[in-house]
Amino acid sequence: MNKQHDEMMARLMQTRTALDTVRRTMDSALDQVKVWHAHPEQVPTPAEIQEHKDTLFSAYGRYRVLQGEYDSLVNLTARLLNQHQSAKNAFEQGWAARLIDLLAQLQGEDLAPLREVLDHIAHQDDLPY
Fold first, then answer.
1. 3-class SS letters over 19-73
2. Is residue 2 over pLDDT 80?
3. pLDDT of 57 strictly over 80
4. What domains lie within the chain, and their CATH numbers?
5. Among the listed residues 129, 39, 34, the one whose alpha carbon sits nearest the alpha carbon of residue 84
6. pLDDT digit string (tens) for 78-122?
7. By the 8 A CB rule, do 52 and 26 touch?
8. Pairing with 2, which of 27, 51, 98, 104 sits 20 to 30 Å away (CA)?
9. For residue 96, what is the DSSP state?
10. Residue 72 C-beta-side C-alpha neighbours within 13 Å
11. Which long-range contacts (CB under 8 A, 24 or more apart) does 60-65 make?
12. Degrees, nearest 5: CA angle 63-33-29
């Protein structure tokens, strides 16, 4: 699971970096629109408008790819959490089954000290999972 976690964290960092790049591109495009709006006398050339349009389309396309990557990371995270829950459930079931087995093997005077230890453990929340 550690390898999966490391891979997921690496993908998350790559996605964050790419999202930051898209954000900077969009900020730049928005800043340019603000400049054109603040100075209507500076009419952009058709080439500038086309370049601006191309930048926006490129950023939007990259955003859609990142949206898919984000969905993939969310699904991977959900799978890892399910694996953890499954392992936790298996541990708890094995723990409960082993207790029943131990109790079935004990006789009278051996049962009381074990019952005290088990009661003490049951009130602790530090099981190793």
1. HHHHHHHHHHHHHHHHHHHHCCCCCCCHHHHHHHHHHHHHHHHHHHHHHHHHHHH
2. no
3. yes
4. 2-122 (1.20.58)
5. 129
6. 888 888 888 888 888 887 788 778 777 777 777 778 778 877 877
7. no
8. 98
9. H
10. 13
11. 62/18, 62/21, 62/22, 62/25, 63/22
12. 30
Inter-residue contact 66 to 15 (CB < 8 Å): yes
Mean pLDDT check: name the lowest of 14-18, 29-33, 105-109, 123-127.
123-127
pTM over 0.70: no
Q: Output the six-digit token pair for 108.
A: 């009278």
- Write down how long the chain is: 129
- Joined together, the tokens standing for residue 76 give 């991977």
- Both structure tokens of 65: 């790819």
How many Cα atoms within 13 Å fall on the side-chain side of residue 53?
7
